[in-house]
Amino acid sequence: MDAIQQDIVDEFALFSDWSERYQYLIDLGKKLPPLPADDKVDAYRVLGCQSMVWLKPSQDNGRLKFAANSDSAIVSGLLALVLRVYSDRPAAEIVATEPEFIEHIGLSSHLSPTRKNGLSAVLAKIRDYAKAAA
């Protein structure tokens, strides 16, 4: 997973300012596969996010996979990054991996407090699912 996080850091280093980085996040969010309406239920809703966010786990051959969506373009982009790092991984690996890319690309200092809280809630939910599966 370290290689994936480094790839994200390298991609964000290509942009000279945060308006370009936000646009990249929005573009990433547009590429997220849509979540079926049947999966946009309270059981998969991530609480603590200002926007609506759903995170659906599934398991396949000992690996956790996640599908996610949001009604916010930037949050959808953040979800795309998080899924890149954590989806399709063994539960123990998910639990053991810190989201270092967030600090390295400067997200911590460029997200609003509500988006930071939402991102933290998503990461906590992913860890909860992984701990339950481990």
User: How would you classify the helix and strand content by structural class?
Assistant: alpha+beta
Order of helices and strands: HHEEHEHHHH
Strand order of the largest sheet: 1-2-3
Query: What does the radius of gyration come to?
Result: 14 Å
Largest sheet: 3 strands, antiparallel
What would you call the shape? globular
What portion of the residues fall into strands of 2 or more residues? Answer: 5-15%
What would CATH call the architecture? Alpha-Beta Complex
* CATH fold annotation: Sufe protein. Chain: A
Number of helices: 7
Low-confidence stretches: none
CATH class: Alpha Beta
Count of distinct strands: 3
How many domains make up the coordinates?
1
Measure the end-to-end span.
18 Å
Helical content band: 55-70%
Mean pLDDT, rounded to whole units? 94
How is this structure best described in words?
By secondary structure, this protein is of the alpha+beta class. It has helices at residues 2-13, 18-30, 73-86, 91-96, 100-104, 107-110, 113-133, and strands at 53-60, 63-70, 89-90. The longest helix is centred in the C-terminal third of the chain and has 21 residues, at 113-133. The radius of gyration is 14 Å and the shape is globular. The model has no long low-confidence stretch (mean pLDDT 94). It has one domain (2-133): Sufe protein. Chain: A (Alpha-Beta Complex), CATH 3.90.1010. A three-stranded antiparallel β-sheet has the order 1-2-3. α2 packs across α3 (73-86) and α3 (73-86) runs parallel beside α7.
Short description:
The chain has seven helices and three strands. The chain is of the alpha+beta class and 134 residues long.
